[in-house]
């Protein structure tokens, strides 16, 4: 059954108007007709089974059934520096959404080569991956923040994955993964020594992801997978 994303819908609605872009996809691309059954999600845990009652520029549907899914106790939060090649960041967001990331924060680090991102484009990738993977919760995406600003907002620490071999690090897979899991992933040039020191003063535990050096986006997907497996 085809699934569409409508963020501003609530459990008590009986008739829903699809956004123009989703209406176009339903009626022009998929050529759905009145009487066809579709699914709607709002990215907040709700699933609506609906009947298409009006096609056109702003399609309308009648709600047949509503279900709500309780969120998992575990939350996976990845704070990651956008890659120089934006395609790699987009790939990370798609795959991390499919695996089960809950929250992504974008970091502007001292060694960052990309200092601008188009949030609208990234949000569309999250929506598409959420629908494709049959998830009912869309990951939360936070706009680019300087590393120091982000760190100062965090109260309970987390993990920081970095590549400096002269520091005391443990492998992440040997750690106990908490329910509220937060890890920092740096840019292609790694975190600066000053950024690492700042994170340590904020109760972030230094970790390594193994003996192989991973690309930024690969590291992000690896830690999401590891966190999901550890708490399965």
Written description of the protein model:
- This protein is an alpha/beta fold and 232 residues long.
- The chain folds into 2 domains: 3-68, Ribosomal Protein L25, Chain P, CATH 2.40.240.20; 75-230, SPOUT methyltransferase, trefoil knot domain (Alpha/beta knot, 3-Layer(aba) Sandwich).
- The chain is 30% helix and 28% strand.
- Strands 8-7-6-11-9-12-10 form a 7-stranded parallel sheet, with helices on both faces. A 5-stranded mixed sheet has the order 1-3-4-5-2.
- Helix 2 (86-99) packs parallel to helix 3 (119-132) and helix 2 packs parallel to helix 6 (216-230).
- It catalyses: uridine(1498) in 16S rRNA + S-adenosyl-L-methionine = N(3)-methyluridine(1498) in 16S rRNA + S-adenosyl-L-homocysteine + H(+).
- Residues 72-227 form the Ribosomal RNA small subunit methyltransferase E methyltransferase domain.
Present the secondary structure layout:
Blueprint lengths: L2 E3 L9 E3 L2 H10 L7 E5 L4 E9 L5 E9 L6 E6 L5 H14 L3 E6 L10 H14 L7 E7 H7 L4 E4 L8 E2 L8 E6 L7 H9 L2 E5 L7 H15 L2
Helix pairs in contact: 2-3, 2-6
